[in-house]
Design goal:
Shape: globular
Helix content: 25-40%
Number of domains: 2
Number of helices: 9
CATH topology of the largest domain: FAD/NAD(P)-binding domain
CATH architecture of the largest domain: 3-Layer(bba) Sandwich
Structural class: alpha/beta
């Protein structure tokens, strides 16, 4: 709750601006619709480069970014037919240490970056077959992944159940703490001169084939040379753009738990991924004694209710992997909305109108992709072309189902 309290200190209350146009004091270089980790990262880097930037979000950092576990896991999250996304994720993972160091220096806050690695384990023989297949795929792609016996897994993490059937050690999968990250980004944005407006963008303003700014729900219009759509799961709700200009982003519900172990039970040293009767879950240990357990994947529209069934299934499967979970205190249950896309990859690049930049649809990789997505946005705001490695994620692509 401390972090939530500090968020408010960085905001401009739009009630003070109601009925007035910020543009009366001059048009801005860029307005960013959406204050999650992607939007805030882009705002910080753009302002650091000298641009006059406004971020508009009803509660910056308190959406999907607040609910996320923060695994930086391009290797254990690799999926078939997502090789282009893998390359983007690997690039982002490589950028993360430098990004974290620069942000911590700029903000004065720790972001919880830990190069801890991930251990993925199988609960039974069928789950072992799934992991063995994943391991083969990882090796074919040239990824750093080592198969571990049951004894090797338990020597790495003593809390693991003796009933597991083997696993995969991936040293290159790391973690960050999204809530610490948001606090650092808000501080860095404030110090770099970013204006944060506590409101929601309802409509993109246009003039001919060019964007000219945004209209907010609080009777405020903000004029700008560039508009960045970093609206995540709420992208479809933004009006004002011509048909086909908005990429098809939908909300995908994820329920997540936060627990705390007794002081006499040490947390795992690594991220733990478990496959339990074909279902996947993760356990992310924090240095402050918290353990994050998640997450469901549910097509429920904008529903953010926490359900007994989801809490039960997550705790049941987690306890199969780590029996000591039975001793943990359940301190928080939460549901967030990931911005899903048809091919699970983000929309990143130049939009359909002049001055429009798109950075949305990051689905399960928003925290991981923050450094590279922000760098693409900043390049476009500076009038530079999209880097070749980002071209497969163009907002005008329309992948099949």
């Amino acid at each position: 709750m401390e972090a939530r309290g500090q968020l408010g200190n960085a905001l401009v209350d739009c009630r003070r601006l109601s009925g007035h146009r910020i543009a009366t004091v001059g048009s801005r270089d860029a307005v960013i619709a959406g204050g999650g980790v992607i939007g805030l990262s882009a705002a910080w880097l753009a302002a650091r480069d000298g641009l006059d930037v406004v971020v508009v979000d009803p509660s910056p950092g308190n959406g999907a970014s607040w609910a996320a576990a923060g695994m930086l896991a391009p290797v254990t999250e690799v999926h078939y037919n997502e090789e282009a996304l893998l390359e983007l994720n690997l690039r982002a993972a490589e950028a993360w240490p430098g990004f974290a160091a620069e942000l911590e220096e700029a903000s004065g806050y720790d972001v919880g970056y830990r190069p801890c690695g991930t251990l993925a384990v199988a609960a039974d023989a069928g789950d072992r077959a799934v992991l063995e297949d994943l391991h083969r795929f990882q090796v074919e792609l040239g990824l750093a992944s080592t198969w571990c016996s049951v004894a090797e897994c338990r020597s790495l993490e003593a809390l693991l159940s003796p009933r597991i059937r083997g696993g995969i050690l991936v040293p290159g999968d790391h973690q960050a703490d999204p809530r610490r990250l948001v606090r650092a980004l808000l501080s860095a944005c404030r110090q770099a001169g970013v204006t944060l407006v506590n409101d929601r963008v309802e409509r993109v303003l246009t003039e001919g084939s060019r964007v000219t700014g945004v209209a907010c729900s609080g009777n405020t219009e903000i004029l700008a040379d560039r508009v960045v759509l970093a609206t995540g799961a709420w992208t479809a709700a933004v009006a004002g753009l011509p048909a086909g200009a908005l990429p098809p982003v939908r909300p995908v519900k994820g329920q997540i738990l936060r627990l705390r172990f007794p002081a006499d039970i040490p947390l795992p040293d690594r991220n733990i991924r478990g496959i339990v009767q074909g279902s996947s879950l993760y356990l992310v240990p924090r240095l402050d004694g918290e353990l994050v357990c998640g997450a469901t994947v549910e097509e429920r529209g904008e529903d953010t209710s926490v359900t007994a069934g989801a809490v039960y299934s997550l705790l049941r499967d987690a306890q199969i992997i780590l029996p000591a979970m039975a001793e943990a205190e359940l301190v928080e249950t939460l549901a967030g909305l990931r911005p899903g896309t048809p091919d699970n990859a983000p929309y990143l690049g130049k939009g359909a109108l002049d001055g429009l930049v798109v950075a949305t649809g990051h689905y399960r990789n928003g925290i991981l992709l923050a450094p590279v997505s922000a760098s693409v946005v900043v390049s476009l705001l500076a009038g530079k072309p999209v880097p070749a490695w980002a071209e497969p994620f163009s907002p005008d692509r329309r992948p099949g189902p």
